[in-house]
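Continued from yesterday's entry.
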Amino acid sequence: MTYFEGFVAPVPEANRDAYVKSASDFAPIMREFGVRRHVEAWDSDVPEGKVTDFRKAVDAKPDEKVVFAWFEYPDRTSRDSTNEKMMNDPRMQDMGESMPFDAKRMIVGGFDAIVEEGSAGGSYADGFVVPVPEGKRDAYRELASKMAKTFRKNGATRVVEAIADDVNHGKVTDFYRAVKAEDGETVVFSFIEWPDKGTRDEAWKTIMADESLKPEGEMPFAGQRMFWGGFEKVLDTAESQPAQQAPTPANA
């Protein structure tokens, strides 16, 4: 399955255009280095949580929005090779000095896909960060796989669940702190791609009203500490690549 490098970053709302330009300038270099796909998505429908949320994850200030982003690779070896090239390319230092956001509060990590349904596409994405007990990986994967088919049935173009593989503890912020991970817990980075926000909103109404989808028994993750939000894509390099036919829900 695909390997993902996931990012969450706080960006001043006034710097949106500058951020999109910076990411667009950055994307061709990353493809040169080996990134198969690069997506940047801007804060659109990000709720405030009682315990955790996207804003708390990056200590966002009142004038800042949250960016949810990811790189895709065939495997971790490819990701590691790309990071090595980045470290040794002088263009990275120049770009790093002009970033329109506080990189010290950005969180980043490498994740291995455990569920991957559908094909890249659409203008909107839901992003999730979830704390999962190590002993419940299989149960989580089983539940996530079931729900992925439900999302696809209701219009999602793609559903990905990826579990922590190379996620470090940062000095200021990190994925573990973001979900207040406890001993024995790992972190899942997940997203659902939608054709547009309208499709996403209608799908969630249908899913939330479906009594057959109500959870039964103990859930294989800490629901009170997971967080999610809706994001408008502002960059998706898949759009510049040859289109792939998306599988239908029946054969996804």
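--- second protein ---
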Amino acid sequence: MSIATATRPATATHRSERVDLYVGIHKALRHFMTDTLHRVGRMDANNPDDLRRTLAQFEGLMELCLQHVHHENDFVHSAIEARQPRGAARTADDHVEHIAHIAALRDEARALAQAEASARPALALRLYRHLALFVADNFQHMNVEETQNNAALWANYGDDELMALHQRIVASLPPEENLLVMRWMIPASTPAERAQVLGGMRAGAPAEAFAAVLDAVRPHLDDHAWDQLARALGVPQQPGLAHFG
């Protein structure tokens, strides 16, 4: 079992609650998007180290967004369409635009990286503004998925079927992608969600995979959040390691 098991959505605690395939990954994406937007906005484009680090995070975001589109197309949209034709049409159309937007943003980032020093501030501001539009569009898109697409899934599938679909998705993901998702998802989640995701992973994943996820998320939790999580998981507490971002 891979670290992908850590992305398992919350199970129902009340009869009215349903398995939600979107909640965890969308928290990760919102966190990653907003942090990257802030970093691009405050970047010193003529500082080589700052430029390199910021554009590396930007590229990581673009790649994860692109892979996320493909995963939703291949698994979630296919499931909706199988039982409700054109039920995912709106978000499928959005995905075509997102792929084009990602390509355009990557072109802008490459132009910035290769530009003369005098041109970089203006190109950095352009990238920041266009990334902000991409983030805004994605936030609206994710809300449609979390409402309309979830309604279609819940109307046509039982929770056991949705969990099976979830497992097929995570089984298709490489470990490095799951680790990146965990790095952004766990700090963005509630204490209960963190404990549930990582507790489930600890029960079923190899020890080294579980340790890798803890190492990835620990620097991004403050001491109080880590104390809560460590107590819930029964792992040693290591105060003083947190950095924010």
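The longest helix spans residues 120-156. Residues 105 and 130 are 7 Å apart (CA to CA). Will compare against the first tomorrow.
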